[in-house]
Amino acid sequence: MEKQGKFDYILLETTGLADPGPIANLFWLDDELASNIFVDGILTVIDSKHFISQVEEKKADIDINEAVRQVALADIILLNKTDLITETEKSGILSQICAINSAAIVISTVNSRVDLDKILDLNAYGCDSSHSYLQQNLSLKQQSERVLTAAGNHLDKTVSTVRVDLPGTLNTLEFDQFLQLLLWESQISSPTGATMEVLRLKGVICESDCEHTTILQGVYETYDKRSSNIPIPKEPHSSIVFIGRNLDQQVLESSVQRCIIPS
Description:
Layout: H1 21-29, H2 31-34, E1 43-47, H3 51-56, H4 66-73, E2 76-80, H5 87-100, E3 105-108, H6 130-137, H7 140-150, E4 159-167, H8 172-184, E5 197-205, E6 212-219, E7 222-231, E8 237-245, H9 249-257
Parallel strand pairs: 1-2, 2-3
Antiparallel strand pairs: 4-8, 5-6, 5-8, 6-7
């Protein structure tokens, strides 16, 4: 970074790295680094010919399969080598992907050829375009249809996407306390008693001490909130997407609902 101003874009290719999450966290934890560059988004490339066998693979030393983890963290997924599979096989793979991460954009490719405009300048973690990014990919109807279509075939039903949409303004302090219980202290459990583990968190929220809507982003136990340039609407509402393990719609929704300031 000594040549500050000389870089237009930096691509970090992490072949062999099972978990890209710590890299994203680095930009939030290191203030000096974050002042110079920011994370635009996480791109996962899937080998469609071998994807099913990869997500089925079980290893004794890890809780969540690496392939499942990489899909869960992705903002963009390139489904590559689609020329080597049938339409039926492709449909099954898309169902598996959407059951894990229904918030990601999936682009089918051959030889990984893709229009760069579709994978660069996402600003998936920033404030300038996150509203349009979330609205494009996280509509409640679209997300619900994807999960319902995929749920019956999903290989690891413990990893899924849950979206919470609620009207009203969030009490900033109470919402932060909820996030800390969920992400830091692992104190939020499903009805079966399983601890919820969040891999990825994203959303647009309205908080009590802000004049503008807030962009919420998180990876694992680290989360970040930044004010956008869009004023809070007359009828405030918040939309939050949780991607992770042992998530429960009703528990998460009721937890966020308790943070809403009574009207």
